[in-house]
Please model this.
Amino acid sequence: MQPEIRESAGSARERQRTAVHEAPVAPDFSRTRREWARNLAIAVGAGVVLAFVGAMDSGSAPLLQRLLYWVPLMVGGGLLGHAMALLVAKIPKANVNPWVFGAILSLALTLPATFVVWGYTNLLFGTRIPLAALPALFGSVLLLSVAMTALMVVVNWPGRVTHAPAADAPAPSVRFTDRLPAKLKGAVIYAVSAEDHYLRLHTSKGSDLILMRLGDAISELDGLEGAQTHRSWWVARDAVEDTRRDGDKVVLVLKGGAEAPVSRPNVRALREAGWF
Model:
């Protein structure tokens, strides 16, 4: 057990709460060493795959030359993408939805990346790609940018956040409470977790299953302060009693005994929001 992670529920609740009605958690681009290593490994892996398949008509070149072409390009593209993401993150509306953010980033990244690919291709293969061919090259780079941006969004974007009303605001009507089965009516909702096509409801009156998608449930849980801690879990903030580590993973211990995993993109966001 690591003391800097473990904390009582009382002290956690004393920390400053996330502001009501603020934008959903945006990606944090100040990477830790581990996050940088993970993203670098993804870029290198993508470069190796593209080299082996001979993407963008590079298949006629020797494998070593293809590796020297694709791996540096993908790593450089990752660094360029990081720089462009910092700029796109300054657009308020881009941070509301990860796929809106990804679409804007893909378009912003493709133009400079096209010139990088054009220059590096001429340098490594000794070719002279005419400027008239840049539109076709732009299309190929755009497809690659969309694929890599989508992958990075999935890997790095924190989960969605729901909010409680301000202290002086009237109590909200939480639509999701209407979906509670009869035996759970009036219960306090601790967490919701996905199990195949069902959701398991963790409450003060026990648990039960309903047929629903987690994404739709989170939309209806607005009015309760909580967060999507993992792709398959939403957790109410007041339900967190303790926090522990399971190897290099963070786990939230909830009222009622359930334990909710915290995926890596969410660890820093929840820590900075005062969850642990």
